[in-house]
Design goal:
This protein is α+β, with helices and mostly antiparallel strands. The protein has 20 helices and 22 strands. The strands form 4 sheets. Strands 11, 12, 13, 14, 15, 16 and 17 form a 7-stranded mixed beta sheet that branches.
Length: about 700
Amino acid sequence: MIIDGYAPSQMIEDLRKYQAELEIQNKALRYSQQEAEGASERFATLFSNVPLALMVVDEGGLVLASNAMALRLFQPLENDPPLNFLLPFVGPEHTDEVAVAFSSARQEGTSEVHEVQFLSGTQGTFTGDLHIARIENPSDDLAHFICAVIDQGPLLTQRHALLESAAVLRQRNEDLLLSENRMAAIINSSLDAILCIDDKQLITVFNPAATTLFECPAEQAFGARLGQFLPDVEKALSEGNVPAQAMLGEFTAITLGGKQIYVEISVSLERRLRTRTPFRADDPNAIAMRGQPGMQGSITTIFARDLTSKKLAEAQRIALETQLRESQKMQAMGTMAGGIAHDFNNILSAILGNVDLAKQDTPAGSSALVSLVEIEKAGRRARDLVRQILTFSRNEPPKRVPIQLAEVIHETQRLVRVAIPPGVDFKLVVAEGCPLVLADATQVEQALLNLCTNAILALGHNKGSVTIELGTTTLSLPFNDRIGVPPGRYVTLRVRDTGSGMSQQTIERIFEPFFTTRQVGQGTGLGLAVVHGIMQTHQGGIDVQSAPNEGSVFTLYFPATGAAPVEALEPEPVTEVEGRGRHVMYVDDDQALVFLVNRVLTRKGFKVTVFTDPLEAEAALRSQPEIYDLLVTDYNMPGYSGLDLLRDAKAIRADLPVAVASGYVTPEIEQRALQEGASALIYKPNDVNELCETVQRLINHPDAQP
């Protein structure tokens, strides 16, 4: 049967197929339903057990679902308010921020708010991050959101601790940088040279003071060995017996140019994890090497202080001390010479006076007259010796006049030639055109004689030569400072010999009084001391150059002068002394001198009263002051000096002429005697005729200036 052209059999077949398809679809639907139910169960399980606070919230803030973690955070106690709405559990300072986050999640799908303050029940709070994700909900117009709250309490504490640690570390780094900058400033501004070396003794730090001291740029010093500049210090450090902090003392350093200098060294040793190498910007490995751990190393800091100025000052101090000691020796010698001169002058005065009287009493053809003349010569030489001793003991300047030293040399060489042994070659080299000098010819002659005598003695019995040289020179620093004279033009008087010479130890002592290397009987040791005193009084200097077996050269430096020479004065005629009974009181503590003066003045017609005790003389003058025409008194007398007697005599009789005699007359003595009223000063020893002339002059002209 066919219905509308569709056979029933075909219809049945189609229905079977459709039924099969429906069964298949039904089976798939049941499977999908099972899967959906399984997924829902898994979601519910995950939602409930995930260790995060999860909530499903609609856009009105209604909490549709919440897991156990959310309830534990927001409703820790049963009597706490239920978690129905989320916003009441948000702190007031974050409410608006959370509302904006929900609105943003509705538009964008997701949103986050960090460190939100939430309420935990009625008593507590906690801080968490809120993550919001929109859930598709086509069956409802209200949007649903899945909210996750992550408690940041433990993490926040760690975060704050890390922030504090970071702040502390940052402050420490700033302090370290400041300390390094400060240390770099100190090193760069230090007046001492500062060098740092590693355990291989390679230089890693070279400050500006080191650059100046060692005359080497810092770039060239980096990486160089310490021994290039401080070889002795490198050796001491290599031996390993230097403590961590030590003052090593004085060392010799070497500059880049090879010049030797003196430095004072102190060291400081520092142990560190890795030896630090010099940083160079052009080294690609320099930055990579910084901060990397390495084997144990050490950094040694060396402080070098320049001692050049100190050494120069020390040498100058030693030179000044040497000059001071020499000056003190000369002063002590002068004091001693003053004491010796008093007694010795009295002896010489007695000898010379008695010789003169003996010559007057001896017939012209007598053989004794020859002996008396020789005695007189010896006495005069002794008198000259005393004057030599007093040359450097008197404080008054010598009587210097412009003279030509060539004339003095020619006069002296005649005396020297007499004493020269046959094997000695004596030479005289005088330069022409030498300027004049302000000098005492007698003192210069005596100094030259002493030098020539020493030169002859240095030759001994050997052959050799002695040469006197006269020339000119100009002295400047530092040589003029070494011999103690100002810079300028000088006339040089040089005595050169080829004798035995002297060692440095002997040269340092040759100007000491009574120091001599000669055997007994060959010298007193006064010669060079006298020469030294003569040159001091002439404002000149003396230099000595000598070595054992190489001879000696003594050079005298006299300041040149442009003054004109002084013309010699004609000697005054000698007047005949006639005492005519004038009464003279003579006072001296030396018995021999009193005996001599009594005889001399009595022979010249004077009436003489002599005393060896000044107190007895003062008593005699007080008892009969008008009988005396003149008082002559010695200056140096024990217990009661000549000035005391002069003062008392003027008090007794103011118009009585008084003369004071002394063998050691200084400007101070002369000034004091004149202030007390002395009419004249008599220098001992003097000639008999000179004494008589002075006595007669004072008697005839008592008001004349001395």
